[in-house]
Design goal:
With about 100 residues, the chain is mostly beta strands. The chain has one domain. It is elongated. The N and C termini lie far apart (about 30 Å). The chain has no helices and 5 strands.
Length: about 100
């Protein structure tokens, strides 16, 4: 069972030949938690037409509780409080 300090996310990385998961940045504030995925992208080469992902369990300093989660939606939203306050802006991958 996942602890209340853990948020599970899937990072959509992109092409397996051109992109590589590079980590997660977490910014915890009193009223929100922002999660940003970092992905390295290779330049100047042909890329395969596939979509890879990385499953990551993010450990928070404090429980998510009523804070707004921005960046990514948990794959199992039932296990997380504050579902109605989750931001779906996970489309931009930085890195």
């Amino acid at each position: 069972m996942r602890s209340e300090h853990t948020v599970a996310i899937d990072v959509w990385v992109g092409s397996s030949s051109c992109n590589e998961y590079a980590g997660i940045d977490v910014d915890e504030q009193e009223d929100q938690v922002a999660i940003t995925a970092r992905v390295r992208t290779a330049e100047g080469q042909d890329c395969t037409d596939d979509l890879t992902s990385e499953h990551v369990e993010v450990e928070l300093d404090d429980p998510l509780a009523g804070r707004v989660l921005t960046g990514c939606r948990p794959p199992d939203p039932v296990a997380h409080s504050g579902l109605d306050r989750v931001d779906d802006s996970c489309g931009t991958i930085v890195g």
